[in-house]
Amino acid sequence: MRLRLRILGSLVVVALAGASLTACQKKLEASQFVGTWKSSRLSTPLLMRENGDWEIRGTDDGVLQYGVWRLDGQRLIWTVRDANGQVTHDANTVLSAEPRRFVLAERDGSKTTFDRLD
């Protein structure tokens, strides 16, 4: 009888943990990412516009890099044309998204944090 109660108790804990994780994974909306951000990888701001444009501005307010972005499920996809004219798409999984911060998983396994500036 004790063994059955232990097993039942363990199953309840596992079920509650699973329900808790599911509840924490809210559906992401593109509007959450619109704004001006400070990246943990950049010294200058990243601007993400509602129309899908993004740009990185230098200290003189000149544009250093730009492209388009879109949200695809739990992934943020950045598109840019490099110096050779090649178009590349960089898909990063959104690990967390809050009103003033989001965190992305990079291809190399590292994480990039973005803090809202506006």
Would you write up a description of this structure?
The chain is α+β, with helices and mostly antiparallel strands and 118 residues long. It has one helix spanning 2-24, and strands spanning 35-39, 46-48, 53-57, 63-72, 75-81, 87-98, 101-105, 111-116. The protein has an 8-stranded antiparallel barrel. The model is unreliable at 8-23 (pLDDT under 50).
Proportion of residues in β-strands: 35-45%
Helix-strand topology string = HEEEEEEEE
Question: What is the CA–CA distance across the termini?
Answer: 59 Å
Overall morphology: globular
- What is the number of helices? 1
Helix and strand content put the structural class at alpha+beta
Question: Which segments are poorly predicted (pLDDT under 50) over 5 or more consecutive residues?
Answer: 8-23
Radius of gyration: 20 Å
Summarize the amount of helix as a percent range: 10-25%
- Secondary structure tally: strands: 8
Task: Report the major sheet.
Answer: 8 strands, antiparallel, barrel
Arithmetic mean of pLDDT: 85
Describe the strand arrangement of the main beta sheet, using strand numbers: 1-2-3-4-5-6-7-8
